[in-house]
Write a structure and sequence with these properties.
Number of strands of chain B: 4
Oligomer: heterodimer
Largest sheet of chain A: 6 strands, mixed
CATH class of the largest domain in chain A: Alpha Beta
Helix content of chain B: 55-70%
Shape of chain A: globular
Strand content of chain B: under 5%
Largest sheet of chain B: 2 strands, antiparallel
Order of helices and strands of chain B: HHHHEEEEHHHHHH
Largest interface: A-B, 70 and 58 residues
Number of domains of chain B: 2
Number of helices of chain B: 10
CATH topology of the largest domain in chain A: Rossmann fold
Radius of gyration of chain B: 23 Å
Strand order of the largest sheet of chain B: 1-4
Number of domains of chain A: 3
Strand content of chain A: 15-25%
Distance between the termini of chain A: 54 Å
């Protein structure tokens, strides 16, 4: 039973100062209890929509708006922000900047106290919000001591104590690990089920929220190019692709295997949004002989020869952060990386991934054990000297960019390692060409997009010509199109230069696509280590770390009775093995 | 990386103390160090420092936090001792003579005993001045600080700026550490540079990204605060209810008593 309309946008167009149009002719109606998901590539206008609804525009960011916007009886454009904030709460991507009080209790009370809500009511709301996000008993904790998922849930609770009628979530899980995403997703799901709030959420992770969404809006350059129920919207995979939105793997599988032709929006009921539902559809197609299983079509996986020399080794590595309380981050870790390997590392935040790579590049010195580069201990080498051997591309490029131009940014590292001046220019050109930024060579790095800044940071690392390249979360905060740009650089480094790549990520699709070996860390120890497909097959062990195998792999696991190889990892592999019967006959 | 001076949720007499009593300790400390300085002030300052040390111990604040305070101030102390050692105008007893370069009443080529002692006195004064605020912050929850400030009629915006600055310090520490790491990864070995080289070239690659990031974060902070009603023209609610207990009066009497003793020591005929 649909509730009252709490948010309405009628032909809303918005341009930031400088006449940069961010939203164009947008129409949206959201009712109480409804969950609206907004998808789109970076720069499509998702955050601007959040800012418009919550009044951040025009009260913090200026601009010009046309059309009508009504939020629970007011127009946020005309009201001060504290009035809008009583109707609309907003949760942003980065929990760090939303938590500014020294205790969780004070954080939750901050909003309603500003509005003069009576003390007892504030305490009641705080208790209720903490229960909803499952952080009871942590009132006295400093929010900064919480894990990533807990921080974001704390920030959500702090918004909920304002008792908004509309909740705006701007990519709330984009900076979280799988456990954090699950925790926040679960809290959102409970809010949705309670039915008191209308929720508008922007995201790139279309797969995770599909089952919750009542309405999906796809933005492209500020315009809604697709709008409707999830079934209707995801029946247009080609249009989604053009808009830079990832079509959920389940929909891709149906679209390709269950004869759901692109544009078949007239038959939305045929789209299934559950894994079991899609598996059933495929089973039916195979039984009805419309699909044929060709297990032999899966090409053998290539891995470097086992006799390839070991480039990097962690031997009995133990590392403890001093306390109080002391934290044992790594415990007797023994790992080897051979030349030419492409290795993925997964694990929850706090599992020891970052500590491990910091030990590998010499930023941290292990208390026990050693790191060896080509058989020799790195203890005598400085971090700078290690940079020419093992390069680490960090998640946030903004920690390192400081020069006036991209060219200077790359030259900085080269000068530090003592590359002669006459060779520096050539190395800069080469590095910029590698990442496709040669035209931006003289641009101030902070004027680049986030994706390009990451590429520049990678170029600066790769210009030092390391033998091993470590990438930390190359897909973070990237949209579907930009997602694999950095990983592709690593692949080229691997295939063209024969380099060794280590990739830390939470993105199982990335691992499935690139890595032929996967290491799973759990509580500072190696839980699993082996060929990617074999590791992903150990579902029970993986469950401890909240890592879920890729959708294609999960489908293959469910369909082994039909003869599908269980080690399928990507959709491409699935489509190689499951082919329309006619094609096989023609091929035959 | 955690900042060393932040609230420690413990149950000690100092933690239970009324925030205004602790604030009185801070204000009296500041008053004491603002008295005109004289060569013979060292015992006075040491008495107050010792008393503050007792409060630190009763509040179960770890000694390492005091050591950290000393570490932070070491550079300033060395600078003060050297500058006073060479420029103190009442310096008479040479400790080391590098030559003679007279500037008004001082001889810049001579390190004098009196100058070094005066520099030491200034260091103790700074130490006294900086030792009370960390104790206040580490033993008083934010909500209690806000209520106490409210009772003193300090504008809420000013109190909030103080509280959020404490929180922002954490972020600053984390960002600083991340930036140093990021630059080290580009063979920028700041740890292996000498003091002069660091001063000349080390800080631009660290401070530039820090400032740019702070601007960005500050913007996000503003959004987070204002979307939670900060700045509304409404009388805000006080969450913490503060009641004075007999123990608070006793502690206040003790603090004021020690302060009077120090004042008497300073201005009385004994020193």
């Amino acid at each position: 039973m649909p509730g009252e309309e709490v948010l309405a946008l009628r032909k809303v167009t918005f341009a930031y100062e400088g006449d940069i149009v961010a939203l164009r002719d947008l129409n949206l109606s959201v009712r109480k209890g409804e969950f609206v998901v907004v998808l789109g590539a970076n720069g499509a206008g998702k955050s601007t929509l959040c800012y418009l609804i919550s009044g951040i525009v025009p009260h913090i960011y200026g601009g010009r708006r046309q059309g009508h916007l009504t939020l629970v009886g007011i127009d946020p454009w005309d009201e001060p922000l504290y009035v809008t904030s009583q109707r609309c709460g907003v949760l942003m991507q980065d929990p760090e900047v939303q938590l500014f009080m020294p205790s969780l209790g004070a954080e939750l009370a901050f909003g309603p106290a500003n509005l003069g809500v009576p003390r007892e009511e504030i305490l009641r709301r705080s208790k209720e919000a903490l229960t909803l996000v499952r952080l009871e008993g942590l009132e006295e904790h400093n929010p900064r001591d919480l894990s990533g998922g807990q921080k974001q849930r704390a920030a959500l609770a702090a918004v909920l104590t304002m008792q908004p009628r509309v909740l705006v979530l701007d990519e709330p899980t984009s900076q979280l690990d799988p456990l954090g995403r699950w925790e926040v997703g679960e809290a959102i799901e409970r809010l949705k089920r309670a039915g008191d709030l209308a929720i508008v959420m922007t995201t790139h992770e279309s797969e995770e929220i599909l089952h919750l969404a009542d309405q999906v809006v796809v933005l492209e350059r500020g315009e809604a190019v697709l709008q409707g129920s999830p079934e209707e919207v995801f029946s247009h995979p080609d249009r989604l692709e053009r808009a830079g939105v990832k079509t959920p793997a389940l929909i891709q599988a149906q679209s390709r295997l269950v004869a759901l032709a692109p544009g078949a929006a007239a038959l939305p009921s045929r789209v299934s949004l559950s894994l079991e539902g899609v598996a059933d559809q495929i089973r039916r197609e195979v039984t009805n002989r419309r699909l044929t299983v060709l297990p032999q079509a899966l090409p053998p996986r290539q891995a470097p020869a086992p006799e390839a020399p070991v480039v990097l080794e962690a031997r009995d590595l133990t590392f403890e952060y001093p306390g109080p309380p002391a934290v044992l981050a790594l415990q007797d870790v023994n790992l080897q990386w051979r030349q030419g390997e492409f290795v993925g590392i997964v694990g929850q935040n706090g599992s020891g991934k970052s500590t491990l790579v910091r030990c590998l590049v010499g930023l941290l010195r292990p208390g026990h054990g050693d790191v060896l580069f080509r058989g020799k201990s790195i203890r005598g080498l400085s971090v700078g000297e290690m940079a020419r051997r093992v390069g680490l591309v960090l998640q946030n490029p903004d920690y390192q960019l400081f020069s006036a131009s991209c060219r200077e940014e790359i030259a900085f590292g080269l000068r530090n390692v003592g590359v002669p001046d006459e060779q520096i220019e050539g190395a800069i050109e080469q590095a910029l060409r590698t990442v496709g930024l040669e035209k931006q060579a003289d641009l101030f790095p902070f004027r680049l997009s986030f994706g390009d800044r990451r590429k520049l940071a990678a170029a600066a690392t790769m210009a030092l010509a390391p033998e091993v390249l470590i990438m930390d979360e190359p897909t973070t905060a990237q949209d579907h199109r930009g997602r694999y740009q950095l990983a592709d650089l690593a692949r080229r480094f691997h295939s063209e230069q024969g380099g060794t790549v280590v990739m830390i990520t939470h993105d199982v699709d990335l691992i499935a696509r690139y890595a032929h070996r996967l290491i799973v860390l759990y509580r500072g120890q190696v839980l699993l280590d082996g060929p990617t497909a074999e590791v992903f097959a150990q579902v029970e062990e993986l469950r401890k770390t909240f890592v879920v195998p890729p959708v294609a792999g999960q489908l293959a696991q469910r369909l082994t009775a039909l003869g599908l190889p269980p080690d399928i990892l990507t959709l491409d592999e699935l489509f190689q093995v499951l082919v329309p019967a006619g094609i096989q006959q023609r091929a035959g | 990386m955690r900042p060393v001076f932040r609230y420690l949720p413990l149950d000690t007499p100092i933690h239970r103390l009324h925030p205004l009593v602790k604030l009185a300790h801070v204000l009296l400390t500041l008053l004491l160090v603002m008295y005109p300085i004289r060569q013979g002030d060292l015992p006075v300052l040491l008495v107050w420092l010792g008393f503050s040390g007792v409060l630190w111990a009763v509040g179960r604040v770890e000694l390492r936090r005091f050591t950290t305070l000393l570490k932070i101030l070491t550079g300033t102390f060395i600078f003060l001792i050297l500058i006073q050692g060479f420029t103190y105008r009442f310096g008479r007893t040479p400790l080391i003579v590098f030559g003679h370069l007279r500037l008004w009443e001082a001889d810049l080529g001579v390190l004098t005993r009196e100058g070094v002692m005066f520099g030491l006195l200034l260091c103790v004064r700074i130490l006294v001045a900086t030792s009370s605020l960390p104790l206040f912050v580490m033993t008083t929850p934010a909500s209690a600080i806000m209520t106490a400030m409210g009772k003193l009629r300090v504008p809420r915006v000013a109190t909030f700026m103080f509280i959020s600055a404490l929180s922002f310090t954490t972020l600053l520490f984390e960002m600083w550490a991340s930036i140093v790491e990021a630059q080290k990864l580009r063979a920028f070995d700041i740890d292996r540079m000498n003091v002069i080289k660091r001063a000349v070239r080390a800080y631009i690659p660290i401070i530039t990204p820090l400032i740019l990031l702070l601007f960005r974060k500050a913007n996000d902070f503003q959004i987070a605060m204002e979307t939670k009603g900060f700045g509304a023209p409404i009388e805000p609610t006080e969450i913490e209810t503060l009641h004075a207990r007999p123990a608070d009066y006793l502690w206040l009497a003790l603090i004021v008593g020690v302060f009077v003793l120090c004042t008497a020591l300073k201005f009385g005929p004994w020193l």
